[in-house]
Amino acid sequence: MTYVTPSEEQRIHETSRFLFGTAGLIAIVMGLLILIWPDKSGKTVMTAVAAILGFWVLVNGAINIGVGFFSKSRGGWARTGYTLLGVLFIIGGIAILSNLMFAALTVTVFIAITVGVLWIMEAFVSFAFVGKTDHKAITIISGILSLIAGIVLVMSPLYSAVILWWVLGVSLVVLGLIQVVRAMRAKTLDAHVL
Questions:
Q1: Which end of the chain has fewer surrounding CB within 10 Å, N or C?
Q2: Taking Cα atoms as reference points, which of 138, 120, 122 lies closest to residue 130?
């Protein structure tokens, strides 16, 4: 068991507050960019993510093909499997890179659903720890906003990219502000307070 001195605990607490607050500020900036330039920021971010994903898939395909061809320790079936998997990765990477906007929309829907589910889970975690925090009102408001934003993202990922980006932008700004306030008001090293 490791003993943490009071000064080390204070340093850890201050670092946690700083990181938590910084994450909140990043969320606010991202949200404001989405709200100010929804079309420009949305298309740029979406196509950049799709391009990165496409190149990652191509590299993964090349690695799998390399393992299939050059691995001496693997049996025939394993090498064949790696080679076929590599070919599928290459085909997928080419498909992604050949139509970045379609791939970006697909990635956006996936991300929206994932973020929505995570926000819903975050809301339930907030509600579970309301009794253990000094900031009950902020925790409840944060939980309610997370729940609403999560449900909206899960229920309407295809409804409209504009509405999705707008909801995401507003949610990031509001949740980021709450996160910054919670980081500034935290007095103890307690994950439930942050």
A1: N
A2: 138
pTM attached to this predicted model: 0.49
Identity of the amino acid at 172: L
Which pair of structure tokens corresponds to residue 168? 């995401």
CA distance 187 to 10: 10
pLDDT in tens, the chain (194 residues): 556 577 777 777 677 778 778 888 888 887 787 777 766 656 777 787 778 878 888 988 888 888 888 777 778 888 888 899 999 999 999 998 999 888 877 877 777 788 788 889 989 988 888 887 777 888 888 889 889 888 887 887 766 555 666 777 788 888 888 888 888 876 654 444 44
User: Residues 58, 94: contact at Cβ < 8 Å?
Assistant: yes
Tell me how far apart the 2 most distant CA atoms of the chain are, in Å: 62
